[in-house]
Structure formats: C-alpha cells, structure tokens
Give the backbone structure.
Amino acid sequence: MSTGSSSEFIGAAVTLYERLMASSASLLQDFDRLSPEEFERALGSRQQIIAELDTVTRELGARLADAGAELDVFKHFQEETTRKVLEFDALVISLARERLDVLREDLASLARGKTALHGYEGKEKGLRTRLDSVA
C-alpha cells in the first residue's frame, strides 16, 4: 500500500480501527462462550488487525505533509477508538482474571476432595484389617 494519497491511508486506517473496535467488542461480548482455542484464535485475528494498522499508520506518517485538516479529524478518531479499545481490553482482562480465580478455587476444592477421599479409604482399610483380625 505504498502508493496512494494520505486520504486513502486515513480511510484504510479508519477501517482497520473500526475492525479493531468490533473485534475488541466481540471478544468482550463472547468471552464466556469462547473456548480457550476460540479465544486464542480471536486474539490472533485481533493481532493481525493491529499489525495491518501499524503498517498503514507508518505509511500515513510518511505522508503527513499533504494530510491537512483531514489528519486532525483522523487523530481525534484514533484517540477515541484507542481509548474504547483499551476499555474493552481492561474488561476482558478482568473477566479472564475472574475465570482464573474460579479455576484455581475449583482445583483447590478438587485437591481437598481427593485428600479427604484418600483419608477415608485409609480408614476403611484399617477398619477391615481390624475386623479381619477379630473374626
């Protein structure tokens, strides 16, 4: 995309920012329904959008001289979109931490249950041994 006017690069960047926003919103909205593999794919897709956006904004930076007022509008759009994406990301991170805490609690509960089961099985074996010696 090295040829083109600054308007074309701004248009491409706006489209990519909109895709990034949609991807971030979708990730937040679908967080509880996504399997770990689907979550991983969604993050990969989002990272690809970010890489494309980085390329376009670097190209745009090389053409700043002829961008004028259009660049000011884009910068405002860029700042607002980035702010919203960061808000979505903070919420997704919070949800992920909550899910991790629940998983840790579940694992600890399972471990306690396993320990109790082994203790019960040990007592049962000892009781059988004592009953066998009495009979």
Q: What stands out?
A: The chain has one domain: 6-134. The mean pLDDT is 82. The helical segments are 6-29, 36-61, 69-134.
